[in-house]
Amino acid sequence: MKKLLILLFSILISFNSYGESYVCATSCMRSNEVCQMSYTRDSKGFIGGDMEYMMDFGEDVGIVETLYPYVLENEDFLTFTENAVAPIVEITLAHSDGYAQVNSVLINKKTLVFTHIWSALGPLKDSTPIHENRGGNCILIE
């Protein structure tokens, strides 16, 4: 009986840890408006939804989602990251495509202040590194 109670309690804890969402307001990178970001925990990490891309391409495109598989947290802070690389492909002699990027979110769980950091590096020797940072406040939906 005691083992059954421990098993049930651990299952309840694991179900309780999935499904929380942070909905955050921030300034848009490409316009002078307020954009909404959402981050929802699932079994693979956090799924991030960015509404800014809907404004760029039209509402029928839908929300662009990103999986953030690398999650670290304690009782005060939560951070999750997505890394990506694309191989360098020479399109013409003067133009190549390819990149490496890091996309991270940091949330203060006590104040619900967040920052979203994105850095990328292009394929050319003279490619300028790109760094974008935006932040704001979130609400927690459990």
Describe the structure.
By secondary structure, the chain is an alpha+beta fold. The protein has helices at 2-17, 52-57; strands at 21-27, 34-42, 45-50, 64-68, 70-73, 77-90, 96-108, 113-121, 130-141. The protein is elongated.
Overview in brief:
The protein has 142 residues and is α+β, with helices and mostly antiparallel strands. The chain is built from two helices and nine strands; from the N terminus they run αβββαββββββ.
Rg over alpha carbons: 19 Å
Helical amount among residues, as a percent range?
A: 10-25%
Structural category: alpha+beta
Low-confidence stretches: 1-17
Order of helices and strands: HEEEHEEEEEE
Shape: elongated
Give the rounded overall mean pLDDT: 79
Distance between the termini: 30 Å
The number of distinct helices, counting runs of at least 4 residues, comes to: 2
Percent of sequence in beta strands = over 45%
Strand order of the largest sheet: 4-3-2-1-9-8-7-6-5
Layout of strands and helices, then pairs:
Elements: H1 2-17, E1 21-27, E2 34-42, E3 45-50, H2 52-57, E4 64-68, E5 70-73, E6 77-90, E7 96-108, E8 113-121, E9 130-141
Antiparallel strand pairs: 1-2, 1-9, 2-3, 3-4, 5-6, 6-7, 7-8, 8-9
For the structure shown, list the relevant keywords.
2 helices; alpha+beta; elongated; disordered N terminus; 56% strand; 142 residues
